[in-house]
Structures are given as C-alpha cells and as structure tokens.
Amino acid sequence: MKRILVAVDGSKPSMHAAGMALELSTATGALLTVIYSVPPVILPGEVPFTVVNDVLKAEVERGKEILAEVLKELPGGDKVTSIELEGPPAE
Q1: What would the mean pLDDT of 25-47 be, rounded to a whole number?
Q2: Distance (Å, rounded) from C-alpha 50 to C-alpha 88?
Q3: What is the DSSP letter of 29?
Q4: What pTM was estimated for this model as a whole?
Q5: How many CB atoms lie within 10 A of CB 34?
Q6: Contacts of 3 (CB under 8 A, 6+ apart)
Q7: Nearest residue to 13 via CA among 59, 70, 60
C-alpha cells in the first residue's frame, strides 16, 4: 500500500476514520492524505449572486477549519497532507 485517502466532514466518525487511517499509514509506510469536499451551494428561489458567493466562501472557510482541526488532532499530523475540493462529496 503506497497511499491512503481519507475523507472527513468534521463529524466524530470521520475524525475516528482519520485516526485509523493514520495508524494504517504508519504501519504500512503509506502516504496519508486527508480530503474535504465543499458541497455545492443550492439555495431556494432567486437568491442574489452576492449571497450565494458569501455562502460559498463560508463553506470553503469551514472546510479549511475542519482540515486544520483534523491535522492538529492527528499525532504525527505534520507528515499528513490535506486537499480541499469543491463539488458533491459522494462523487
């Protein structure tokens, strides 16, 4: 195993999964990458573009905070990389 990718969303189960992924990567020598996907912004009705843009910026900032928290919580997290993407998380 050379690489491990673990997705997080800020929930306790995803934090636990990140911890398990770190253990596995340490045991196998694999590179660990933590990923967060910013979900698409879908607002009801005709919402001004500026509002949609503000909501998207807030979601992107939330993703950065979640990734920073995960990296801080993982022992040896300085050897872990992170990626933030935009789009439907399931895809």
Answers
A1: 84
A2: 21
A3: T
A4: 0.80
A5: 25
A6: 30, 31, 32, 33
A7: 70
